[in-house]
Amino acid sequence: MVTPEQKARIEANRKAALQRLQARGIVSSSNSNNSSVKGSSTVQNNTNVESRRKQDDMAALQAAAPPDSLRDAVSSREDLKSKKRPLDHIRPSIRKQDYIEYDFATMKNLNGGYINPEDKTGEGSEDYFDELGSKKQKSLDDWKREQKERRMLYENAPPPEHISKAPKCIECNINIEMDPVLHDVFKLQVCKQCSKDHPEKYALLTKTECKEDYFLTDPELNDLELFHRLEKPNPHSGTFARMQLFVRCQIEEFAFKKWGGEEGLDQEWQKREEGKTSRREKKYQKKIAEMRLKTRAQEYTNRLREQKYGTKHVHDFSIVVTTGKDDDGTPFIRKKCVDCGLETEETDI
């Protein structure tokens, strides 16, 4: 509540402000009186309109909504009004990232980059509730169970109903249990025993061996339509490119088609070996020519020296200079030949 003294003080302050504005010529006396009257009348009109509007809204809500939901409707209307206030849309003029480089309040612990909480395997993803989950969600028991099921699938799979119709090994025509690597990756129906007994056909070759032994190029080996491959981590370092393995029979088949059979491959090998030998011989002859040039230059220098100083030169060390002493106090002696200018440094032991 405003006391009479406060009202009088407010009125006096208002009159003093009007007098200052009139003294500056900003507001005239008639405008100030009219504005005060108009302001009071507009305030009263606005308050009356607002009160009438509230009464109409309350009546409409009472007529339309049941008595139990009336309080909820009023509270929701007040919440909407509070959300639409203009002050809520005002943003600060200075952005936080302009003066804060690292906001530790928003940082998350990624455990050295190995575990990302925002990964697709999170709780909100589709594959979070799989039977075994992803690799990051598996427990040790789940992993063991998965490995056991994999062995049962590839190694201990039950035979078909008609064993005569089961696919057999193309080498022995007896076994129906295929090597999982050769069967799944390289699409070859070969059992494990036959793959061990015939390494000349089913051994795995690296990419370097394919290029050196069968003279295949990188574009050919990188073509997924030509060769099947098995990728493994590089044994030299985990940061190197992954190792690619190829089966020997497929590589030989393509190489024989490319070079015209085994004889053509041998001829290509012989041709490349001769090329290597010729290149080594050219390199050797080049080095010999450079050495001869150096020898001739040294011979020419020796001949000039002989013409100037004779065939046998005897140094004349007539100039002896003491340059200093070592840690033991022994003096250093420097000698210089008067004829050829050769300098030597000696010390007495």
TrEMBL record:
Question: Does the keyword field hold Transmembrane helix?
Answer: no
Q: Which sequence ranges form a coiled-coil region, renumbered to this chain?
A: none
Quote the PROSITE patterns the UniProt record gives.
XPA_1 (PS00752), XPA_2 (PS00753)
Q: Which residues form the XPA C-terminal domain?
A: 201-251
Show the stretches that span the lipid bilayer. Answer: none
Pfam families, from UniProt?
XPA_C (PF05181)
Q: Where is this region: Disordered?
A: 22-89
Q: Any idea where this protein resides? A: Nucleus
Q: Where is the composition biased (Low complexity)?
A: 27-43
* Key words of the record: DNA damage, DNA repair, DNA-binding, Metal-binding, Nucleus, Zinc, Zinc-finger
Enumerate the InterPro entries for this protein.
Answer: DNA-bd_dom_put_sf, XPA/RAD14, XPA_C, XPA_CS, XPA_sf, Znf_XPA_CS
Q: What is its main location?
A: nucleus
Basic and acidic residues bias located where? 69-89
Family stated for the protein in its record: Belongs to the XPA family.
Q: What is this protein called?
A: DNA repair protein RAD14
